[in-house]
């Protein structure tokens, strides 16, 4: 298959949108969660790279909405400007990168991020079509809005498509 | 104003000196551990975005071997010792006296990773004990954890605390080179990422406010 589109890159605590034939990608997700929201009809999609579960954790006044699950998903919905009833979700990330004895709450940030993302998606009644979360490996993900497939690459496991 | 905007050039120089002393001790420890000459570059202290932080470690997808620990006590923060896989393999070969050690071969990994963890323990311990002596602060490192994965996935974990206070990170970055044996690019890097509240404590302990 010949790829004709560009790859839109999304950094950490960042969000962007994509229209087919372009694809959208974020690299090195660890405890962070990459959330894809997509609309099959318009072939438009968005990706937000979420670092933390809740904006109430923020200790400074001005916050970057893409950083938190609660603000990041609504921020992406706004960027897409597509009714939430047409949006579907795929997600990846939320790994536990390091194993420590006697883990504190901040040490299990990956699972907490996944829980928070699911709660927010549920509040918008956005269905999660597939996910690849947890584990202890970093992930690089790329979504193609034409096929609505999410390609996931991990260092130790290899590639998969969900 | 967030913490990263309040730091003066003078204070950055002091942080650089902290990196100099800490990593200098770690380099000496590494040198005697491997019985080889270890060089250390002048530390960099930078205020960078999260994405720039990943770039310092070779890009978010770059696969690295990392020893990570949390600093607890009167000052808190995260510390990473990051190596390329080739450099880590070379260290393990020297430490375990097994010239054929390779990460790809499972079965040999356990003793190799254990050796690497011990090395991480010694190096970060010597970094932190000199920091503790210098500042007169009581510091307790957690037992180091090891991961071999994408730099982005590894380092973002150390940014969890910092990211609650802002979108920038102050990194004290020191590079170690195993002189003579390796090509450029196959070096070790120490990253010291103090938590935001720790800067005031750090500067106060040194009599600069």
Automatic annotation (TrEMBL), chain A:
EC class: hydrolase
Key words of the record: Chemotaxis, Hydrolase
Catalytic activity field: L-glutaminyl-[protein] + H2O = L-glutamyl-[protein] + NH4(+)
Listed transmembrane segments: none
Gene3D superfamilies cross-referenced by the UniProt entry: 3.30.1330.200
Entry keyword annotation includes Hydrolase: yes
InterPro entries: CheD-like_sf, Chemorcpt_Glu_NH3ase_CheD, Cytotoxic_necrot_fac-like_cat
Entry annotated with the keyword Hydrolase: yes
Enzyme Commission number: 3.5.1.44
Pfam families attached to this UniProt entry: CheD
Function: Probably deamidates glutamine residues to glutamate on methyl-accepting chemotaxis receptors (MCPs), playing an important role in chemotaxis.
Family label: Belongs to the CheD family.
Name used for this protein in its record: Probable chemoreceptor glutamine deamidase CheD
Source organism of the structure: Jeotgalibacillus haloalkalitolerans
Gene: cheD
Automatic annotation (TrEMBL), chain B:
Location of the CheC-like protein domain: 11-46, 111-146
The keyword Plastid is assigned to this record: no
Record-linked Pfam families: CheC
Keyword entries, A-Z: Chemotaxis, Hydrolase
Keyword set includes Hydrolase: yes
Xref: InterPro entries: CheC, CheC-like_sf, CheZ_family_phosphatases
Superkingdom field: Bacteria
Protein name: Chemotaxis protein CheC
